[in-house]
Amino acid sequence: MVLKGKRFMMAVAVASFLALLFLGLHPGAASAAKVFRVGMWVEPTTLDPHAGLAGSDHDSFKQIFEPLVEVDPQGNAIPALAVSWENPTPKEWVFHLRKNVLFHDGTPFNAAAVEFNIKRLQDPATKSPVADIAKKIVGINIMDDYTIKLTLDAPNVDFPIVMQDRPGMIVSPTAVKKLGADFGRHPVGTGPFVFESWKEGDTIKLKKNQNYWNKANVFLDEVELKIIPDQSVAVMNLQAGNLDMIISLSEERVQLLEKSKDIKIYYTPILEFFSTYMSNIPPFDKKEVRQALAYAVDREAITKALTFGYGRAATGPLPDIHWAYEGNVNRYPHNIAKAKELLAKAGYPNGVKATLTTIPVPPHNKIALIVKQQAAEAGIDFTLEMVEPAQAIGKFMKKETNALQLGWSGRASTDATFQSLIHSAGAYNNKTYVNPEADKLIERARTVSDIQERKKAYSALQKLVADDMVILVEYNKSLITAAKANVKGVKNYLDGKLRLTGISAE
């Protein structure tokens, strides 16, 4: 049914009014105070960077915390809490720390704080998903208040980039000791913004860190991160002036905004991908079943249907823009007959039943629905369940579901991606995939400084992972950010994470 005339205008007015109510705003609220409002599609699992489960958590982390090493938009390592670093021996890294930095609670940042953070990550009580990376640090030597030497169990040429992510994000020792388990609800870092409040399902409020060491690059006084799962609501609020920016805008919404003179679109291919992770519990404990699913799923069709030309059908965990990308792998072209043949070979001539878990947020739920439909044609009968992100990841980690449809937000460190997802000791692998050859290739790549030798190891690894088909990567994402035309300084980063430093609203 098509609405026309007054009925159409009334429907639009009602929809817009409901959207404003959803945000708890009112027409004209955008001009009331100097508050920069960012629309986010998913709520963080926690505001503790050492305990966060989802890659989307970083969009909040990056405003409150800083790592030892940061990256520029192209993914190159640059100074952050460490002003420089050196590698005197293959296993040793010396970090020279930034002086005169304070945590938001007034605690001084120094080498002792770095030591505290590493030990906290390594402590089993923290239950950190990146503990496996932190445990590779086998020696900590405080050389002076602003110099610390970290000794690894094996050489890792990627280590500074590794410390750009959660293993290198530094939290206040004072706040952790004081708050304990509540730290994730009351985070304290050294970052450009200070945490004020978190209304679950609604808003995270931040304010400018007046003691920030790089305060001259922070132009926003107050920030509100608005949790808006429905992007149509977010788009209406951006158009109405009740949001200043939307991050990770879905591809299907771009056309609604790109013709607007008041809104600018920023588009960048990034490292993030969407995928189906398979657990090694039956029936996916058999490689033939995993390969059958790969043949059953039409990745080109999914990419075309959901990304409107902004995504790229994938062949594995690394996108085609990555320096170590290997395209000469088993690509599993859509082939239902081949999928049925492999199921029969695995001992399932009449098909299999399995559970597929995802989250009730696009594009994950849409991808899962398509995967379910396409898999059914080959005889893989999925029961689809949709739960919140932390619960979905938890079910997969506990092996309470056969498969998980989710994404990987991308890591500037190639080693961190393969260590976390593929290595048998990886935090997100959780013994789902155990292959000594894959472990050796990962360990080999991190020990050689020659870029061509590293690429050889990663090429062999990608071929192996594609053949074993542990992760069915549907497509690689492009980051799309939409902002009001008066917003300046917007930069999309290769790792797809939000940084609000350098951004202003004139």
What is the chains' assembly state? Answer: single chain
CATH topology of the largest domain: Dipeptide-binding Protein, domain 3
Structural class: alpha+beta
Give the percentage of residues in beta strands: 15-25%
Q: Tell me the Rg in angstroms.
A: 23 Å
Q: Mean of residue pLDDT? A: 90
Choose one word for the global shape.
globular
Quick overview of this protein structure:
Helix 1 crosses helix 7 (231-240) and helix 15 runs antiparallel to helix 16.
Structural overview:
The protein has 506 residues and is α+β, with helices and mostly antiparallel strands. It folds into 3 domains: 19-54 and 191-262 and 485-505, D-Maltodextrin-Binding Protein, domain 2, CATH 3.40.190.10; 66-178, Dipeptide-binding Protein, Domain 1 (Dipeptide-binding Protein, domain 1, Alpha-Beta Complex), CATH 3.90.76; 271-478, Dipeptide-binding Protein, domain 3, CATH 3.10.105. It has 16 helices and 21 strands. It has helices at 5-23, 58-64, 111-122, 131-134, 159-162, 173-179, 231-240, 251-257, 287-296, 299-307, 336-345, 364-378, 389-397, 414-421, 436-445, 451-468, and strands at 35-40, 66-67, 69-71, 77-79, 82-89, 92-97, 137-144, 147-152, 169-170, 193-199, 203-208, 222-227, 245-246, 263-278, 312-313, 352-358, 380-386, 403-408, 471-484, 487-488, 504-505. Strands 1, 10, 11, 12, 13, 14, 15, 16, 17, 18 and 19 form an 11-stranded mixed sheet that branches. Strand 10 and strand 11 (203-208) form a beta hairpin. Helix 1 packs across helix 7 and helix 9 (287-296) packs antiparallel against helix 11 (336-345). The longest helix is centred in the first third of the chain and has 19 residues, at 5-23.
